[in-house]
Amino acid sequence: MDQPPGEQLSTAADVAFMRQALSAARAAAERGEVPVGSLLVDRQGELLAIDGNRTIGDHDPSAHAEIVVLRQAAARLGNHRLTGTTLYVTLEPCLMCVGAMIQARIARLVFGALDPKAGAVVSLYQLAADPRLNHRLQVTSGVLAAEGGGLLRDFFRSRRT
Predict the structure, then answer these.
(1) Spatial CB neighbours of 89, under 8 Å, sequence gap ≥ 6
(2) Burial of 56 (0-12, 13-18, 19+ CB in 10 A)
(3) Which residues contact 161 (CB under 8 A, 6 or more apart)?
(4) Angle at 42 (CA atoms; ends 149, 58), nearest 5 degrees
(5) What is the pLDDT of residues 12-50, one digit of tens each?
(6) Could you give the residue numbers annotated as active site?
(7) Strand 138-140 to strand 108-113: parallel, antiparallel, or no bridges (unpaired)?
(8) What is this structure's pTM?
(9) Exposure pattern of 33-44 as b/e (b: 16+ CB <10 Å)?
């Protein structure tokens, strides 16, 4: 399969970490949140933070899973720079989240399902690879995309009925 420029193929570790992110997404859904999960690991693969969306429960429009995880990891490490880390998320990140990843200097992003309405990595914008910005991310997309997309479809279907 051809990969877009800057795109990497997934590994067995990517799949294992994405399964954990999907568990965080399911937990978010149980709290009534949109089921998106995320986690951050360091260079050695140590889990730094894991969580799901918290926008509704926290009354915080910025509490997307990615932002929550970045905040937790930065606090844990005592540093706003998260260099050398890999962020996993079940859905393609939005503009806000990619912006935060760039500011944190995340090395790599691995995500599942595309987000044709708000995705800022592949779908609507390509911020992770934009040469005008001061940092770029390595990207792997489509990891367990069907499972992550299915969680979202089921969640919104249940809301409509």
Answers:
(1) 21, 36, 37, 38, 65, 66, 97, 109, 110, 111, 112
(2) middle
(3) none
(4) 55
(5) 999 999 999 999 999 999 999 999 999 999 999 999 999
(6) 66
(7) parallel
(8) 0.93
(9) bbbbbbbbbbee
Tokens of 110: 């691995």
Which tens digit of pLDDT belongs to each residue from 72-106? 999 999 999 999 999 999 999 999 999 999 999 99
Whole-angstrom Cα distance, residue 108 to residue 78?
20
Q: Which two tokens stand for residue 12?
A: 């067995």
Assess contact for 26 and 37: CB atoms under 8 A: yes
Report the helix count and the strand count for the chain, using DSSP H and E: 5, 5
CA–CA gap between residue 63 and residue 124 (Å, rounded): 21
Q: Which residues pair with 70 in a beta bridge?
A: none
Q: Which whole number is the average pLDDT over 47-75?
A: 98
Angstrom distance (rounded) from CA 161 to CA 157: 7
